[in-house]
Amino acid sequence: MTEKPQILLTVTSAGIVSAETKGLAGSGCLDYITILEDLLDAHTIESAYTADYTRTNVNTQNLQEERNVERA
Name one Pfam family in it (predicted). Predict the structure, then answer.
């Protein structure tokens, strides 16, 4: 991925903070949960994966298939 990693934070008028990572493929985005909790003195209530989470797995699978083709 060539996209620069970003974290988009949203704070509602009720004080609820939500965050979404962009440009972080795979489980690398999970590292930011603890960092955000520490910075915001908060705890995660709900978490969900975006399409970027599975993007690494697809790319890894494609690379493995290419390697198998080259070796054959």
Answer: DUF2997
